[in-house]
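Quick entry between incubations.
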Amino acid sequence: MTASTTAVRLAAAALALLATSAQAAPAKAARELPPRPTVADVLKASKPADWRPLDPENTLYMDLPTGRVIIELAPNFAPNTAANIRALVREKYFDNLFIIRSQEGFVVQWGDPDEENPKPFQAAKTVKAEFTAPIKSVGNFTRLKDGDVYAPQVGHVNGFPAARDPATGQAWLVHCPTMIGVARDTGADTGNGSQLYTVIGHAPRALDRNITVVGRVVVGMPLLSVQPRGTGALGFYDYEQPEQRTPIKLVRMAADVPEAERNKFEVMRTDSATYQAVVDAQRHRGGPWNKVSPGKIDLCGATIPVREQK
Amino acid sequence: MTASTTAVRLAAAALALLATSAQAAPAKAARELPPRPTVADVLKASKPADWRPLDPENTLYMDLPTGRVIIELAPNFAPNTAANIRALVREKYFDNLFIIRSQEGFVVQWGDPDEENPKPFQAAKTVKAEFTAPIKSVGNFTRLKDGDVYAPQVGHVNGFPAARDPATGQAWLVHCPTMIGVARDTGADTGNGSQLYTVIGHAPRALDRNITVVGRVVVGMPLLSVQPRGTGALGFYDYEQPEQRTPIKLVRMAADVPEAERNKFEVMRTDSATYQAVVDAQRHRGGPWNKVSPGKIDLCGATIPVREQK
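Done. Structure below.
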């Protein structure tokens, strides 16, 4: 096998697995799927108005030794929790704390590992639960009409995966991978944002409406998801083995960083026609690699595109 | 906060996040959920007959520098591919090959990274696609009646997550995390099992019925899922940077290892009443930590218990 044919083979296999091949198919037997636009095609054709920048007042930079994680808060769903996290960041609470938990297929969590002498902070110690929010206060809800096992309606609000129930008038953020939740004690109102986690595995939907979900990791997810799994119960690191823990160098609000030093990322507007085309490209897939197209997309399977501004 | 109360707080938060707390709740306000059996409770009460050992002829040991990954093949769904993988293992094809790809939220893949001089093998170069199999040949299908976005019916067959369509008479393994698929080229029949991948993120269901799924990782998933993400397209490692790749020391069939040296793991029988109780414990969750119970479980959210034999 020559280098070039093997390269093609590998590239084809790779594209194949992503199942978004944009190759034009020559005329084929009738049973082959016709080619269709891929997500990459849709992004390439997108217009500046299809994107919004991250709001510096809702954007956190969390610097690990391996690089920067960028987090976007969702204050429409959790205004008080978002405000408390801003306060914690601004008093530099997270600086020099740690990743404290990494549980396979579930979550990576960060905060203070020290049970004996917890790091003090001025921000609120407890924030009233914000597990759901009134539908009318969360913003434009763009439905995904493919169905859902857990919620009556699912879709996107301002770049976040969400669900809602017209019967109760409530909406909530959904525990898809990259979403950030607020660890809490048994009482509903015991969370405060000083311990946060992000979902690294298949969406643990039973947590929906049981925890305040406050945002998502927009950039740098791989820095969190590859943290070695903790050897303690539930993936917590052993307190007696501090070398297991990755330190957090610092966390800053983007708004507090000089504008010239900020990262410039944009999120696709999920209420745009272009985002509908992104979803359609994942729902209806073309040949020649795909032999069947799913015809459906589940909420957490729908990509929410992020790009760096030029 | 004293050490003991903080320990309780952390333990409670941890349990909370797992949402399987078994603590007995004292009498509480009416709106609290009553306590219910957790998955741990069900496992504790399980009987030996609720479990089956791994079949040595369908069990692979893949040894990485960090430990052993144990894989179970599903020959009822992919008999020819399983046979070819056995042949590859028995000619020691995988020994000294590599993890070649790690793509965030998607898959980790292994095989031969060398495009110039691929490692030769005697096993079949191509195996006819086994994307689906007749319902009547795959074994006892235990339905999960909570619904699914993609398939008419989902459930479990012999410890594997599966779907079926009575209209076509076909069943197939589903791309839940830990499931193992056969990388292929554009042609449906171009896979052979020499490049395999496992799902590390939210279930990529669009791959269902587009790829031969041949088994799952039963033990050692964390050794694969934390592989540093590849810097090349689609998470492939850069061929010019071999230090990025984790080597595979060897892969052996359990049947070819002296019995005394085999790992003794058991998988819960998914057609048992006890497995229904496991599913129910995840579907209906009790207080005091849970404030709402999902009432549903999605296929890839349903744990398939594995334990080491005493």
